Amino acid sequence: MAERFELVEKALMLMLEEKKYSTLRDILITMNPSDVAGLFSGLDERQIALLYRLLPKELAAETFVEMEPDAQKLLIQGFSDNELKDVLDELYVDDAADLVEEMPANVVKRILQQVDPEMRSSINQILRYPENSAGSIMTTEYVSLRPNMTVGEAILRIRRQGVDKETIYTCYVLGNDRTLVGLVTVKDLLLAEDDDDKIEDIMITNLISVTTRTDQEEVAQMFSKYNFLALPVVDGENRMVGIVTFDDAMDVMEDEATEDMEIMAAMTPSEKTYLKSTPMDLFKHRIPWLLLLMVSATFTGLIISSFENALSMLPVLTAFIPMLMDTGGNCGSQSSVTVIRALSLNELKFGDLAKVVWKEIRTAVLCALCLAAVCFLKILLVDRLLMGNANVSLLVDAAVCLTLAVTVLMAKVVGCTLPMVAKAMHLDPAVMASPFITTIVDALSLLVYFMFAKTLLGV
Q: Strand runs (DSSP E) across 240-316, as ranges?
Protein backbone atom coordinates (compact mmCIF):
# COMPACT_ATOMS: atom_id res chain seq x y z
CA MET A 1 0.00 0.00 0.00
CA ALA A 2 2.83 2.40 0.93
CA GLU A 3 4.70 1.65 -2.30
CA ARG A 4 1.55 2.28 -4.33
CA PHE A 5 0.97 5.65 -2.65
CA GLU A 6 4.61 6.58 -3.26
CA LEU A 7 4.17 5.95 -6.99
CA VAL A 8 0.97 8.04 -7.03
CA GLU A 9 2.75 10.81 -5.14
CA LYS A 10 5.61 10.89 -7.67
CA ALA A 11 3.14 11.03 -10.56
CA LEU A 12 1.22 13.91 -8.96
CA MET A 13 4.40 15.86 -8.26
CA LEU A 14 5.44 15.38 -11.89
CA MET A 15 2.08 16.82 -13.03
CA LEU A 16 2.63 19.78 -10.70
CA GLU A 17 6.05 20.45 -12.23
CA GLU A 18 4.64 20.12 -15.77
CA LYS A 19 1.77 22.47 -14.84
CA LYS A 20 -0.96 19.95 -15.71
CA TYR A 21 -3.25 21.58 -13.17
CA SER A 22 -6.58 20.42 -14.60
CA THR A 23 -5.56 16.74 -14.60
CA LEU A 24 -3.98 17.12 -11.15
CA ARG A 25 -7.17 18.61 -9.71
CA ASP A 26 -9.30 15.81 -11.18
CA ILE A 27 -7.13 13.26 -9.39
CA LEU A 28 -6.93 15.14 -6.09
CA ILE A 29 -10.71 15.32 -5.68
CA THR A 30 -10.86 11.51 -5.70
CA MET A 31 -8.34 11.18 -2.87
CA ASN A 32 -8.78 11.03 0.89
CA PRO A 33 -7.92 14.30 2.71
CA SER A 34 -5.24 12.52 4.79
CA ASP A 35 -3.52 11.29 1.62
CA VAL A 36 -3.73 14.73 0.03
CA ALA A 37 -2.19 16.26 3.17
CA GLY A 38 0.68 13.80 2.87
CA LEU A 39 1.57 15.30 -0.51
CA PHE A 40 2.42 18.64 1.09
CA SER A 41 5.41 17.30 3.04
CA GLY A 42 8.64 18.21 1.31
CA LEU A 43 7.10 20.93 -0.91
CA ASP A 44 8.35 24.50 -0.86
CA GLU A 45 6.14 27.47 0.02
CA ARG A 46 5.19 28.24 -3.60
CA GLN A 47 4.25 24.63 -4.37
CA ILE A 48 2.21 24.30 -1.17
CA ALA A 49 0.15 27.38 -1.98
CA LEU A 50 -0.34 26.32 -5.60
CA LEU A 51 -1.39 22.76 -4.79
CA TYR A 52 -3.74 23.87 -2.00
CA ARG A 53 -5.55 26.34 -4.27
CA LEU A 54 -6.33 23.52 -6.71
CA LEU A 55 -8.52 21.82 -4.10
CA PRO A 56 -12.30 22.33 -3.91
CA LYS A 57 -13.43 24.30 -0.85
CA GLU A 58 -14.68 21.38 1.27
CA LEU A 59 -11.73 19.11 0.44
CA ALA A 60 -9.35 22.00 1.11
CA ALA A 61 -10.72 22.46 4.64
CA GLU A 62 -10.58 18.74 5.42
CA THR A 63 -7.03 18.53 4.05
CA PHE A 64 -5.94 21.58 6.04
CA VAL A 65 -6.84 19.82 9.31
CA GLU A 66 -4.65 16.84 8.40
CA MET A 67 -1.59 18.88 7.40
CA GLU A 68 1.55 19.34 9.49
CA PRO A 69 1.66 22.58 11.55
CA ASP A 70 4.59 23.93 9.49
CA ALA A 71 2.63 23.60 6.25
CA GLN A 72 -0.47 25.12 7.90
CA LYS A 73 1.60 28.08 9.06
CA LEU A 74 2.97 28.69 5.55
CA LEU A 75 -0.52 28.61 4.08
CA ILE A 76 -2.01 30.95 6.67
CA GLN A 77 0.78 33.44 6.11
CA GLY A 78 0.06 33.38 2.37
CA PHE A 79 -3.74 33.55 2.71
CA SER A 80 -5.71 36.72 2.21
CA ASP A 81 -8.18 37.52 4.99
CA ASN A 82 -11.06 36.19 2.90
CA GLU A 83 -9.23 32.94 2.11
CA LEU A 84 -8.39 32.44 5.77
CA LYS A 85 -12.00 33.06 6.79
CA ASP A 86 -13.24 30.52 4.21
CA VAL A 87 -10.95 27.86 5.65
CA LEU A 88 -11.82 28.63 9.27
CA ASP A 89 -15.55 28.58 8.54
CA GLU A 90 -15.21 24.97 7.40
CA LEU A 91 -13.29 23.80 10.49
CA TYR A 92 -14.87 22.15 13.51
CA VAL A 93 -14.30 23.91 16.80
CA ASP A 94 -11.89 21.31 18.23
CA ASP A 95 -9.79 21.41 15.06
CA ALA A 96 -9.71 25.22 15.21
CA ALA A 97 -8.63 25.05 18.87
CA ASP A 98 -5.84 22.62 17.98
CA LEU A 99 -4.74 24.98 15.22
CA VAL A 100 -4.58 27.93 17.63
CA GLU A 101 -2.48 25.88 20.06
CA GLU A 102 0.05 24.99 17.35
CA MET A 103 0.52 28.42 15.80
CA PRO A 104 2.77 31.32 16.93
CA ALA A 105 1.20 34.44 18.45
CA ASN A 106 1.12 36.52 15.27
CA VAL A 107 -0.70 33.76 13.36
CA VAL A 108 -3.12 33.15 16.26
CA LYS A 109 -4.05 36.84 16.21
CA ARG A 110 -5.03 36.61 12.53
CA ILE A 111 -7.02 33.43 13.12
CA LEU A 112 -9.04 34.89 15.98
CA GLN A 113 -9.75 38.03 13.95
CA GLN A 114 -11.31 35.99 11.14
CA VAL A 115 -13.47 33.52 13.07
CA ASP A 116 -17.01 34.46 14.01
CA PRO A 117 -17.70 35.47 17.65
CA GLU A 118 -19.44 32.19 18.49
CA MET A 119 -16.49 30.07 17.34
CA ARG A 120 -14.01 32.42 19.05
CA SER A 121 -15.90 31.93 22.31
CA SER A 122 -15.90 28.14 21.87
CA ILE A 123 -12.16 28.10 21.07
CA ASN A 124 -11.37 30.17 24.17
CA GLN A 125 -13.54 27.86 26.26
CA ILE A 126 -11.64 24.76 25.11
CA LEU A 127 -8.26 26.41 25.59
CA ARG A 128 -9.10 27.20 29.22
CA TYR A 129 -9.32 23.54 30.17
CA PRO A 130 -6.21 21.79 31.58
CA GLU A 131 -3.83 20.30 29.04
CA ASN A 132 -4.41 16.59 28.34
CA SER A 133 -7.93 16.71 29.80
CA ALA A 134 -11.21 15.72 28.17
CA GLY A 135 -12.14 19.40 27.94
CA SER A 136 -9.02 20.17 25.90
CA ILE A 137 -9.82 17.61 23.18
CA MET A 138 -13.63 17.87 23.03
CA THR A 139 -15.75 19.70 20.49
CA THR A 140 -18.84 21.76 21.30
CA GLU A 141 -20.50 20.87 18.00
CA TYR A 142 -23.07 18.15 18.65
CA VAL A 143 -26.80 17.67 18.10
CA SER A 144 -28.95 18.26 21.17
CA LEU A 145 -32.62 17.27 21.52
CA ARG A 146 -35.36 17.83 24.08
CA PRO A 147 -37.18 15.01 25.93
CA ASN A 148 -40.63 16.29 24.88
CA MET A 149 -39.78 16.37 21.17
CA THR A 150 -41.40 13.88 18.84
CA VAL A 151 -39.37 11.63 16.57
CA GLY A 152 -40.46 13.66 13.56
CA GLU A 153 -39.37 16.93 15.20
CA ALA A 154 -36.03 15.40 16.14
CA ILE A 155 -35.32 14.25 12.57
CA LEU A 156 -36.23 17.70 11.26
CA ARG A 157 -33.86 19.31 13.79
CA ILE A 158 -31.03 16.99 12.72
CA ARG A 159 -31.59 17.93 9.07
CA ARG A 160 -31.42 21.63 9.89
CA GLN A 161 -28.47 21.57 12.28
CA GLY A 162 -26.53 18.46 11.32
CA VAL A 163 -24.58 20.05 8.46
CA ASP A 164 -22.37 22.00 10.87
CA LYS A 165 -21.99 19.26 13.49
CA GLU A 166 -19.03 16.91 13.77
CA THR A 167 -21.25 13.88 14.22
CA ILE A 168 -25.01 13.36 13.94
CA TYR A 169 -25.30 9.63 14.54
CA THR A 170 -25.52 10.07 18.31
CA CYS A 171 -27.81 12.83 19.58
CA TYR A 172 -27.90 13.96 23.21
CA VAL A 173 -31.10 14.70 25.12
CA LEU A 174 -30.81 17.70 27.44
CA GLY A 175 -33.10 19.01 30.16
CA ASN A 176 -34.10 22.66 30.60
CA ASP A 177 -30.86 23.49 32.45
CA ARG A 178 -28.76 21.62 29.80
CA THR A 179 -28.28 18.62 32.10
CA LEU A 180 -27.62 15.40 30.22
CA VAL A 181 -30.65 13.13 30.65
CA GLY A 182 -30.31 10.65 27.77
CA LEU A 183 -29.25 9.92 24.23
CA VAL A 184 -30.75 8.54 21.04
CA THR A 185 -29.12 7.39 17.84
CA VAL A 186 -30.25 8.13 14.32
CA LYS A 187 -30.97 4.41 14.04
CA ASP A 188 -33.41 4.69 16.97
CA LEU A 189 -35.18 7.59 15.29
CA LEU A 190 -35.44 5.94 11.86
CA LEU A 191 -36.72 2.66 13.28
CA ALA A 192 -39.27 4.25 15.64
CA GLU A 193 -42.77 2.88 15.07
CA ASP A 194 -44.41 6.31 14.95
CA ASP A 195 -43.15 9.79 14.15
CA ASP A 196 -45.25 11.05 17.05
CA ASP A 197 -43.37 8.96 19.63
CA LYS A 198 -41.70 11.10 22.28
CA ILE A 199 -37.90 11.17 22.58
CA GLU A 200 -38.16 10.54 26.31
CA ASP A 201 -39.89 7.23 25.55
CA ILE A 202 -37.15 5.86 23.31
CA MET A 203 -33.99 7.49 24.68
CA ILE A 204 -31.28 5.63 26.57
CA THR A 205 -30.90 6.91 30.13
CA ASN A 206 -28.13 4.63 31.38
CA LEU A 207 -25.30 6.90 30.23
CA ILE A 208 -21.54 6.85 30.47
CA SER A 209 -19.91 10.28 30.43
CA VAL A 210 -16.73 12.04 31.52
CA THR A 211 -16.08 15.42 33.09
CA THR A 212 -14.06 18.20 31.51
CA ARG A 213 -11.11 17.41 33.79
CA THR A 214 -10.96 13.67 33.12
CA ASP A 215 -7.51 12.68 31.85
CA GLN A 216 -7.46 12.20 28.08
CA GLU A 217 -5.77 8.81 28.41
CA GLU A 218 -8.68 7.57 30.54
CA VAL A 219 -11.07 8.93 27.89
CA ALA A 220 -9.24 7.01 25.15
CA GLN A 221 -9.40 3.81 27.21
CA MET A 222 -13.17 4.21 27.53
CA PHE A 223 -13.49 4.35 23.73
CA SER A 224 -11.52 1.12 23.51
CA LYS A 225 -13.57 -0.56 26.25
CA TYR A 226 -17.07 0.49 25.19
CA ASN A 227 -16.59 0.92 21.41
CA PHE A 228 -18.06 4.42 21.45
CA LEU A 229 -18.26 6.68 18.41
CA ALA A 230 -18.55 9.72 20.68
CA LEU A 231 -18.42 10.31 24.42
CA PRO A 232 -20.35 13.11 26.18
CA VAL A 233 -18.40 15.58 28.35
CA VAL A 234 -20.20 17.22 31.28
CA ASP A 235 -19.26 19.73 33.96
CA GLY A 236 -19.43 19.19 37.72
CA GLU A 237 -23.22 19.64 37.70
CA ASN A 238 -23.83 17.15 34.85
CA ARG A 239 -24.44 19.95 32.33
CA MET A 240 -23.48 19.00 28.79
CA VAL A 241 -20.51 20.99 27.47
CA GLY A 242 -19.25 18.92 24.55
CA ILE A 243 -18.31 15.55 23.10
CA VAL A 244 -15.08 13.70 22.38
CA THR A 245 -15.20 11.93 19.03
CA PHE A 246 -13.55 8.68 18.03
CA ASP A 247 -10.94 10.31 15.76
CA ASP A 248 -9.70 12.50 18.61
CA ALA A 249 -9.52 9.48 20.91
CA MET A 250 -7.40 7.66 18.31
CA ASP A 251 -4.99 10.62 18.21
CA VAL A 252 -4.70 10.46 22.00
CA MET A 253 -3.98 6.71 21.89
CA GLU A 254 -1.22 7.28 19.36
CA ASP A 255 0.29 10.16 21.33
CA GLU A 256 0.20 8.25 24.62
CA ALA A 257 1.75 5.13 23.06
CA THR A 258 4.51 7.23 21.51
CA GLU A 259 5.16 8.96 24.82
CA ASP A 260 5.39 5.63 26.67
CA MET A 261 7.79 4.22 24.07
CA GLU A 262 10.06 7.27 24.36
CA ILE A 263 10.10 7.12 28.16
CA MET A 264 10.78 3.37 28.11
CA ALA A 265 13.72 4.04 25.79
CA ALA A 266 15.15 6.57 28.27
CA MET A 267 14.11 9.74 26.45
CA THR A 268 11.93 12.65 27.48
CA PRO A 269 8.83 12.84 25.22
CA SER A 270 8.88 15.13 22.20
CA GLU A 271 5.97 16.60 20.27
CA LYS A 272 7.99 16.87 17.06
CA THR A 273 8.30 14.07 14.50
CA TYR A 274 11.75 12.57 13.98
CA LEU A 275 12.44 14.33 10.68
CA LYS A 276 11.26 17.66 12.13
CA SER A 277 13.59 17.31 15.14
CA THR A 278 17.02 18.92 14.92
CA PRO A 279 20.13 17.21 16.37
CA MET A 280 19.93 19.73 19.24
CA ASP A 281 16.31 18.72 19.92
CA LEU A 282 17.29 15.04 20.06
CA PHE A 283 20.26 15.89 22.28
CA LYS A 284 18.05 17.74 24.78
CA HIS A 285 15.59 14.85 24.98
CA ARG A 286 18.21 12.14 25.36
CA ILE A 287 21.04 13.56 27.44
CA PRO A 288 19.24 13.91 30.83
CA TRP A 289 18.47 10.20 30.98
CA LEU A 290 21.89 9.23 29.65
CA LEU A 291 23.57 11.29 32.37
CA LEU A 292 21.34 9.80 35.06
CA LEU A 293 21.96 6.24 33.89
CA MET A 294 25.68 6.86 33.54
CA VAL A 295 25.91 8.15 37.10
CA SER A 296 23.77 5.29 38.43
CA ALA A 297 26.01 2.80 36.62
CA THR A 298 28.93 3.91 38.81
CA PHE A 299 27.48 1.63 41.48
CA THR A 300 28.27 -1.28 39.18
CA GLY A 301 31.83 -0.02 38.83
CA LEU A 302 32.19 0.33 42.60
CA ILE A 303 31.08 -3.27 43.10
CA ILE A 304 33.62 -4.56 40.58
CA SER A 305 36.36 -2.41 42.15
CA SER A 306 35.61 -3.78 45.61
CA PHE A 307 36.20 -7.33 44.34
CA GLU A 308 39.42 -6.62 42.41
CA ASN A 309 41.34 -9.10 44.53
CA ALA A 310 38.95 -11.90 43.63
CA LEU A 311 39.21 -11.09 39.93
CA SER A 312 43.00 -10.92 40.09
CA MET A 313 43.17 -14.33 41.78
CA LEU A 314 40.77 -15.91 39.27
CA PRO A 315 40.59 -13.75 36.10
CA VAL A 316 38.30 -16.22 34.35
CA LEU A 317 35.42 -14.87 36.46
CA THR A 318 35.55 -11.65 34.43
CA ALA A 319 34.55 -13.45 31.23
CA PHE A 320 31.08 -14.32 32.56
CA ILE A 321 30.12 -10.86 33.88
CA PRO A 322 28.62 -9.56 30.56
CA MET A 323 26.45 -12.67 30.17
CA LEU A 324 25.09 -12.42 33.71
CA MET A 325 24.35 -8.69 33.44
CA ASP A 326 22.73 -8.98 29.99
CA THR A 327 20.56 -11.93 31.00
CA GLY A 328 19.41 -10.16 34.15
CA GLY A 329 18.61 -6.98 32.25
CA ASN A 330 16.65 -8.87 29.61
CA CYS A 331 14.62 -10.74 32.23
CA GLY A 332 13.82 -7.52 34.08
CA SER A 333 12.80 -5.82 30.85
CA GLN A 334 10.41 -8.64 29.94
CA SER A 335 8.60 -8.39 33.27
CA SER A 336 8.50 -4.59 33.35
CA VAL A 337 7.16 -4.21 29.81
CA THR A 338 4.46 -6.82 30.46
CA VAL A 339 3.34 -5.15 33.68
CA ILE A 340 3.52 -1.61 32.26
CA ARG A 341 1.31 -2.67 29.36
CA ALA A 342 -1.19 -4.30 31.73
CA LEU A 343 -1.24 -1.16 33.89
CA SER A 344 -1.87 1.07 30.88
CA LEU A 345 -4.86 -1.10 29.92
CA ASN A 346 -6.19 -1.01 33.50
CA GLU A 347 -5.80 -4.78 33.76
CA LEU A 348 -3.79 -4.38 36.99
CA LYS A 349 -3.93 -2.19 40.07
CA PHE A 350 -1.59 -1.89 43.04
CA GLY A 351 -3.74 -4.29 45.07
CA ASP A 352 -2.73 -7.04 42.63
CA LEU A 353 0.97 -6.69 43.54
CA ALA A 354 1.11 -9.94 45.53
CA LYS A 355 -0.54 -11.90 42.70
CA VAL A 356 1.83 -10.39 40.14
CA VAL A 357 4.96 -11.10 42.22
CA TRP A 358 3.88 -14.68 42.88
CA LYS A 359 3.21 -15.27 39.18
CA GLU A 360 6.58 -13.75 38.20
CA ILE A 361 8.39 -15.85 40.81
CA ARG A 362 6.94 -19.05 39.36
CA THR A 363 7.80 -17.90 35.85
CA ALA A 364 11.30 -16.95 37.02
CA VAL A 365 11.90 -20.39 38.52
CA LEU A 366 11.07 -22.06 35.22
CA CYS A 367 13.24 -19.63 33.27
CA ALA A 368 16.09 -19.91 35.79
CA LEU A 369 16.16 -23.71 35.68
CA CYS A 370 16.21 -23.74 31.88
CA LEU A 371 18.85 -21.00 31.53
CA ALA A 372 21.07 -22.40 34.28
CA ALA A 373 20.99 -25.90 32.78
CA VAL A 374 21.90 -24.66 29.31
CA CYS A 375 24.58 -22.37 30.77
CA PHE A 376 26.09 -25.26 32.77
CA LEU A 377 26.36 -27.45 29.66
CA LYS A 378 27.72 -24.57 27.55
CA ILE A 379 30.51 -23.77 30.03
CA LEU A 380 31.34 -27.44 30.52
CA LEU A 381 31.36 -28.42 26.84
CA VAL A 382 32.55 -25.23 25.14
CA ASP A 383 34.69 -23.29 27.61
CA ARG A 384 36.30 -26.24 29.39
CA LEU A 385 36.41 -29.17 26.95
CA LEU A 386 36.31 -27.59 23.47
CA MET A 387 38.41 -24.49 24.23
CA GLY A 388 40.53 -26.31 26.79
CA ASN A 389 40.34 -23.60 29.44
CA ALA A 390 41.59 -25.40 32.54
CA ASN A 391 40.70 -22.45 34.79
CA VAL A 392 36.99 -23.12 34.21
CA SER A 393 36.45 -25.68 36.93
CA LEU A 394 33.19 -27.29 37.95
CA LEU A 395 33.06 -24.91 40.91
CA VAL A 396 33.38 -21.91 38.58
CA ASP A 397 30.64 -23.41 36.43
CA ALA A 398 28.47 -23.87 39.52
CA ALA A 399 29.08 -20.29 40.72
CA VAL A 400 28.10 -18.86 37.35
CA CYS A 401 24.96 -20.99 37.00
CA LEU A 402 23.77 -20.34 40.56
CA THR A 403 24.30 -16.62 40.03
CA LEU A 404 22.38 -16.80 36.76
CA ALA A 405 19.44 -18.53 38.44
CA VAL A 406 19.28 -16.04 41.33
CA THR A 407 19.73 -13.09 38.95
CA VAL A 408 16.77 -14.21 36.84
CA LEU A 409 14.61 -14.48 39.95
CA MET A 410 15.63 -11.04 41.24
CA ALA A 411 15.23 -9.42 37.84
CA LYS A 412 11.69 -10.74 37.38
CA VAL A 413 10.63 -9.55 40.84
CA VAL A 414 12.23 -6.11 40.45
CA GLY A 415 10.85 -5.76 36.90
CA CYS A 416 7.26 -6.38 37.96
CA THR A 417 7.38 -4.52 41.28
CA LEU A 418 8.85 -1.12 40.37
CA PRO A 419 6.23 -0.16 37.71
CA MET A 420 3.39 -1.00 40.12
CA VAL A 421 5.01 1.04 42.90
CA ALA A 422 5.42 3.94 40.46
CA LYS A 423 1.72 3.70 39.55
CA ALA A 424 0.76 3.76 43.23
CA MET A 425 2.87 6.92 43.67
CA HIS A 426 1.03 8.54 40.70
CA LEU A 427 4.15 8.39 38.51
CA ASP A 428 4.27 7.13 34.94
CA PRO A 429 5.10 3.39 35.17
CA ALA A 430 7.06 3.69 31.91
CA VAL A 431 9.73 5.58 33.86
CA MET A 432 10.58 2.27 35.52
CA ALA A 433 11.21 0.55 32.20
CA SER A 434 14.22 -1.18 30.69
CA PRO A 435 17.17 1.21 31.28
CA PHE A 436 16.36 1.98 34.92
CA ILE A 437 15.61 -1.62 35.87
CA THR A 438 18.66 -2.90 33.98
CA THR A 439 20.94 -0.66 36.04
CA ILE A 440 19.47 -1.99 39.30
CA VAL A 441 19.63 -5.62 38.20
CA ASP A 442 23.23 -5.23 36.98
CA ALA A 443 24.33 -4.12 40.43
CA LEU A 444 22.41 -6.91 42.19
CA SER A 445 23.72 -9.60 39.82
CA LEU A 446 27.34 -8.58 40.47
CA LEU A 447 26.83 -8.67 44.23
CA VAL A 448 25.34 -12.16 44.03
CA TYR A 449 28.08 -13.32 41.63
CA PHE A 450 30.94 -12.30 43.87
CA MET A 451 29.21 -13.70 46.95
CA PHE A 452 28.92 -17.11 45.28
CA ALA A 453 32.52 -16.88 44.02
CA LYS A 454 33.75 -16.04 47.50
CA THR A 455 31.74 -18.85 49.10
CA LEU A 456 32.42 -21.62 46.56
CA LEU A 457 35.89 -20.69 45.34
CA GLY A 458 37.31 -18.98 48.38
CA VAL A 459 38.63 -15.97 46.43
A: 240-245
Annotate 187-244 with DSSP letters as a single string: HHHHT-S-TT-BHHHH-B-----EETTSBHHHHHHHHHHH--SEEEEE-TTSBEEEEE
Query: Can you give the three-state secondary structure of 363-382, one letter per residue?
Result: HHHHHHHHHHHHHHHHHHHH
Give DSSP secondary structure letters for 339-361: HHHHHHTTS--GGGHHHHHHHHH
Distance CA 233, CA 225 (A): 17
3-state secondary structure of 168: coil
pLDDT at 340 (0 to 100): 86
Through-space distance between the first and last CA atoms of the chain, rounded to whole angstroms: 62
389 by Cβ neighbours in 10 Å (0-12 / 13-18 / 19+) ranks as middle
Residue 83 three-state SS: helix
Using DSSP, state whether 41 is helix, strand or coil: coil
Round the CA-based radius of gyration of the chain to a whole number and report it. Answer: 30
pTM (2 decimals)?
0.69
Are 72 and 40 contacting, i.e. CB atoms less than 8 angstroms apart? Answer: no
Question: CA 376: distance to chain centroid?
Answer: 42
Q: Residue 306 pLDDT > 90, yes or no? A: no
Q: What is the pLDDT of residues 394-449, one digit of tens each?
A: 888 888 999 999 999 999 999 999 889 888 888 778 776 667 788 888 888 888 99
- Helix 81-90 × helix 57-66 angle, to 10°: 80
Residue 317 bridge partners (DSSP): none
Nearest to 346 by CA among 210, 211, 212, 215: 215
